[in-house]
Fold DNA-binding NarL/FixJ family response regulator.
Amino acid sequence: MFQSDRGAGSHPSRSLHQTSPIPGPEFVRVLLCEDNEIYRIGLRVLIELEPDLVVVGEVVDVASACSLADLVDPHIVVIRQGLLQNVHEESVRELCGRDRAVLILAETESELDLAEALRAGVRGYLSRWVAAPRLVDGIRALAKDELVLDPAFARHLVQFLTAEPTGPAETPAQLSALNRLTERQRAVALLVAEGMTNGEIGALLSVSNATVKSHITAVSRRLGVRGRIQLAIFVNNNIAL
């Protein structure tokens, strides 16, 4: 399905290009960003053993991932954490755009790395040594717009969400937007901040997943945030909600 990348590990600018048509909507399309050839091949084999997942491209650096993502339109981009060193946050934001989800395979428990990833819009953060079933389940969950976080990093997320804000204070327009949320939008926003999935929120409020997603989209637009992680951070930092 793909051209050979023999020696790609020693040539980080090389990427593999897709040689077949983009799969249909029944597949979750995955783009791999991994510079270790053996590990990348293992990821590809593992993912393509699943009947609903397909690898649509492979690259060895973030710049190539940004370029190829526009061509193969993946749902999920899987990136080794080490490849994000010295990469501008805007590049990660670009990968998180267009309804794509980024899954970082982390090699350390650095709180700073996790915080930066969350700010950039990343919704998936698993250990690089995660068990195979957890990895494929995580890819599917991200495709459903859910948060995927390795339990080993959960304490860092709690610290990040509850820490005193270090950035500029919210603008009057943002605070005013909080007050303009409907009662149902407030309820959904609070439940997102508690870490509940769309399915769990829908069951609690007796509404469909599509309705929950619509509320989250409307709230995020009104508050000027991107994704459920940034929404959760905003809510936790504003008790006025």
